[in-house]
Amino acid sequence: EDFNFPAGGEWRLAAYAEWERTRQRFTLRVRPGYEYRLLERNDYAPTGRARLRVQGRCAVGERAEWVLSTEPMLNVGPNAVPVPFNQNQAYTGLDLDLLDWLGLEVGYLYVFRQRRTVVEFDNEHNLYGSLFDWVNQGNPVVGPHGKPTNRVHAYDRFWGVWLRRGVKVYE
């Protein structure tokens, strides 16, 4: 039934706080937040969602970190669907510093999502690479000569669909 909802726009106002603690080789990062959402498919009736991201990073050698995180999301606030749990994302990966200016993170992301009908569920399994994600988030990219660039090698057209910002280069 949820799949019959038409695609539509969304306005979102979000507030987050972040706390971080590092001890020896381990870093713990906690980021609670709240999103006030207006969805076109609901005639822009307000709704809300609480999120809590917890991430641990552990140094593995000189230039690598093992990453483990989870992010449950709960519908709360006005017009919220009354389910105690509606989505969770769990991630594990390896973050490598290949060069001083180039990093690579490869990992696995699992998403469990309960639909508004409370009967349908999504289970997503994703392999994840962060160079594209870094660019998609609007972070700076530096070329091989140390100068800022917006050109990103997208490998080929199959992988290039995941790069939403920057200039895709296939040569």
Describe this structure in words.
- The chain contains 2 helices and 12 strands, in the order ββββββββαβββαβ.
- The relative contact order is 0.11.
- A hairpin with a 4-residue loop joins strand 4 and strand 5.
- The strands form 3 sheets. Strands 1, 2, 3, 4, 5, 6, 7 and 8 form an 8-stranded antiparallel β-sheet that branches. The protein has a two-stranded antiparallel ribbon with strand order 9-10.
- The radius of gyration is 19 Å and the shape is globular.
- With 171 residues, it is mainly beta.
- The chain has helices at residues 130-136, 157-160, and strands spanning 10-16, 19-23, 26-39, 46-59, 64-76, 87-99, 102-114, 121-129, 141-142, 148-149, 151-153, 167-169.
What is the topological layout?
Elements: E1 10-16, E2 19-23, E3 26-39, E4 46-59, E5 64-76, E6 87-99, E7 102-114, E8 121-129, H1 130-136, E9 141-142, E10 148-149, E11 151-153, H2 157-160, E12 167-169
Parallel strand pairs: 11-12
Antiparallel strand pairs: 1-3, 2-3, 3-4, 4-5, 5-6, 6-7, 7-8, 9-10
Short structural summary:
With 171 residues, the chain is mainly beta. The chain has helices spanning 130-136, 157-160; strands spanning 10-16, 19-23, 26-39, 46-59, 64-76, 87-99, 102-114, 121-129, 141-142, 148-149, 151-153, 167-169.
Q: What's the end-to-end separation, in Å?
A: 44 Å
Largest sheet: number of strands, sense, barrel closure: 8 strands, antiparallel
Task: Return the structural class.
Answer: mainly beta
Shape: globular
Return the average pLDDT rounded to an integer. 77
- Work out the number of β strands: 12
How many helices? The count is: 2
- Low-confidence residue ranges: none
Taking Cα atoms only, what radius of gyration do you get, to the nearest Å?
A: 19 Å
SSE arrangement, N to C: EEEEEEEEHEEEHE
Binned strand content: over 45%
- What is the percent of helical residues? under 10%
